[in-house]
Amino acid sequence: QNNIIGFCLGSASQFISHLKINKEASSQTYCNSLILLKLISEYIIKWFIRVMIIKMSKTGKVASPQRVKGAQHGHTCVCSLDFSAWDFPVQRFEETEKMIEKCQDSLGELQAQVNFTEFKVPEISGTLENIVERLHRFEHLNKKGLYNALNFRLLDYELQELEMRIKGAHQNEEVDPSKSRELTNELSSIREKVQGLQKFDKFNLLALKENLRTLRNRLESCRTLDSNHLGQCSRRLLSNISSPVVTQLSPFGKSYPFGSWGKETMEGKRATYWVQPLVNSNKYGNVLRTYASYTDFMFSKNQNDFTVTSSHSSTNAIQGPGSVLYDEAFYYNCYRTANLCKYDLKSKTILHATLPGAGFNDKFPYCYYSCYDSTDIDFAADEKGLWVIYATEENYGNMVVSKLNTSSLAVIQTWRTRLFKKSVTNTFMVCGVLYATRYVNTYREEVFYAFDTKTGHETNVLSLPFEKISGRIQNLHYNPRDQRLYLFNDAYMMAYELFF
């Protein structure tokens, strides 16, 4: 009996030890083990009682019939029988009962451990997942080599390049001499910090890169601006957006929900209205439709269609809705490349140039939950000229703004922001200030971010809502001629007044 009860207690003890050691086992496994252990214990107890009874019968005189002699007294037979063999083993039964209670206590302890595990394991697992996720970021940075010697060497090269640009701007009198000296002093200070980081503190490298980005932006902002534009951009940040003042269905209908539209943005040119539909998979196109007047546009008459390329899949076909008409030329992203294309409406010729480092083919598109196809490269025009908005790996997918030379499509100036491009739905430029929008609901969008290329300052606390027809917006740009915002929204063309 001791062996049987010991087996019961040993089984419970083993299960409890297993619970304490094996933290990764599921709660269901423990529950199943507990049920099985109870069934085994009940079976063992019944079997033990049965064996004990049989054993008692073997140790007593029950094993063979008792033969006794009787005496006859009258008509009655009198005999003496020994019933001691059938005495109930009270002491042994009490000992067995105590062992069973001890076994049940062990099972109760196991049940408590299981209940505790069901409550505590999810909490521990959540904590571990959080720690692993946080460590994964550092592991990712380490594997990417952000803190190795090569990156410090590249940072040295960037400092040298920036130093040469500051000297060149000073020699060409593009920057005020006092500003030039101030930038040079700051650059020297940063160089000393880099040398210190190489010896002591590599983990501040990202912060230093952020300082370098800010310094670059300040250099670009200090360069001489065209005096003709200074008077036009004396107003402050955008303060409000009106209800739609124009709402018109695209002349190509709802069959082509993606595209762009607008009005000639160059001051002094004919006020040409234009529409460009994307026909192949809502990504590519090759036709530009123009109207000579607002009346023709509203009544969809007297249109003039330009066939930019022979097909929507040829080399210089139109990709994406990020287009704009500026100085009688149509600017767009060339088919499946990081190239910028310029289609001259007069000569009907195409000029193209590569945008260095720009993501394309949906690498850094505009997004909200799902991303908007072929929106990696977005053109904009304002009082200061022609711009292109995109993102690069060098800037970690954050938005980059570049000023363009309209004759050669060469990049003149570049500013790097800290706004992740995939976190916004669209952008536009007003007086050298980049504005970004985000989704609010199906019928409302909101301007929430601004980056000023003049000062390098940025803010994300704006809240300027405006109405729309449906969820996704394809093209959004500002026109400095009438200070209106033009929107292409699932085949609908809309315009808004801006207030400063």
TrEMBL record:
Olfactomedin-like domain ranges (all copies): 232-500
GO terms (BP aspect): signal transduction
Any Gene Ontology CC annotation: extracellular space
Keyword Secreted listed: yes
Keywords: Secreted
Superkingdom of this protein's organism: Eukaryota
Localization per record: Secreted
A family per Pfam: OLF
Annotated protein name in UniProt: Olfactomedin-like domain-containing protein
